[in-house]
């Protein structure tokens, strides 16, 4: 069995995806070692099914059970380990809420990345490695011009998590693959 991280885009505010019912629904659907982390759309599970099948089943389940019809991003444990290891801003981990990793559904246009990098100020940095964008916003994500323009400026479906969440999901997905 392979363990996966599931990232649900846009959870919070008016869009809720309650963790306990989500865990129960994923377990009932036959997934193993299901865990969730905070009410912002994070889950892990283990399955022997192909990724595309997992994504389709989870999307259908969420639409029916929770009226959740937004993007879901799926990464294997190996991909999550690589995401953590490749962080280009290791010093930023000392203030993990200032570092974010955004998983991308497809490769962004290099010109769009350059345009975003051009608006970076006050120490903000953006680097895209494969299908992960790393944002370092030392003065805070909410105060960053780069962060404010990131989603639309990048032009590809994505969802971001702060480094605290990234590391907690690494722990959970590692545990899910061990069992």
From TrEMBL:
InterPro entries: DUF1697
Top-rank taxon: Bacteria
Protein name: DUF1697 domain-containing protein
Species whose genome carries this gene: Rubellimicrobium roseum
């Amino acid at each position: 069995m392979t363990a996966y991280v599931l990232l649900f885009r846009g959870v919070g505010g008016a869009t809720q995806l309650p963790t306990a019912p989500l865990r129960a629904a994923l377990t009932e659907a036959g997934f193993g070692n299901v865990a969730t982390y905070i009410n912002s759309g994070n889950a892990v599970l283990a399955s022997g099914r192909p990724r595309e099948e997992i994504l389709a089943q989870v999307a259908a389940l969420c639409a029916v059970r929770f009226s959740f019809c937004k993007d879901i991003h799926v990464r294997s444990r190996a991909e999550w380990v690589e995401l953590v290891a490749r962080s280009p801003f290791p010093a930023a981990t000392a203030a993990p809420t200032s570092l974010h990793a955004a998983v991308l559904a497809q490769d962004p246009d290099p010109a769009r990345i350059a345009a975003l990098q051009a608006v970076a100020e006050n120490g903000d940095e953006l680097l895209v490695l494969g299908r992960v964008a790393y944002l370092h916003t030392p003065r805070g994500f909410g105060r960053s011009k780069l962060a404010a323009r990131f989603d639309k400026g990048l032009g590809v479906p994505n969802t971001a998590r702060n480094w605290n969440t990234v590391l907690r999901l690494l722990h959970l997905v590692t545990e899910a693959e061990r069992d």
